[in-house]
Structure formats: structure tokens, C-alpha cells
Amino acid sequence: MMGYHVPQAADPDYYPLTVMSRILASGQSSRLYKRVVDKDQWRFRLAAEHKSSFDPTLLTFTAQPRAGIAPAAVEKAVYDEFERMQKDLVEEKELQKAKNAVLAGFYRQMATINGQANTPRHLRGLFRRLQETARSSRSLQ
What we know:
Elements: E1 2-6, H1 14-25, H2 31-39, E2 44-49, E3 57-65, H3 71-87, H4 92-110, H5 113-118, H6 121-140
Antiparallel strand pairs: 1-3, 2-3
């Protein structure tokens, strides 16, 4: 497990961090999955977690490699992907896919009474602004 201090959900960096964690470690098209499962052929479980919070919190990456895979090798692969993300631009398609997934997750959360009750008001405002941005960018195309 690797953890990083991240700001509270009201911080302007919250949404970019959420999108970044999705690009790195969410699903079979994520960079880490492609690297450690597809390229390196290491079969294991991988996850990133970044919960919204009123206070600063943690962004965590967890990996459970199969027997025989050294944890240090997995850690190096994660750091390599961090470095790649810092050096190379994220392609527009990859970025848009991550943004869409984050927005879809928010919609799923808001579809229930429990999700509405547990979603801080500032997050609702953030996602409202994202919807407006998405609508305006579609109208420009």
C-alpha cells in the first residue's frame, strides 16, 4: 500500500487528483493495469482510493501481487507510471474517458437517497460546474 496526503474535497486540486487516480489505477484500461498485468504479466489485484472529505485525507494505491512477485518490483512499476504521467501529456481520449467515469460515478451516487444525503453540498456544486463545462464544450464542436 502506498499513500499520499491530498487536500479536502473543496480544494481545487480534488477533481484533478480524482481524474489522475482513475487514469492510473481504475479498470483494465488504466495505466497501471496495462503495465503490470498486460505488459509485465503479473496477475494481481490493484486499486486506488480517494474518498471525498471535509478535511485533508489520503489517496491510496494498493496492490496484491501473486506469489513470487517482489513487492519492490510492483512499487517500482507504480513509481515508473507516476513519472510517466509527470513527463508525458495525457491523451485527450484517455482524459475524457476518466472524466466521464468520474461524472458517471457521481450520477450513480446521486441516484439514491443515501448517496444524496452523504454527498457534501460543495461536491454537488463542483459536479454541476462540470456538467456545464461538458455541455458548453459539446456545443462548441
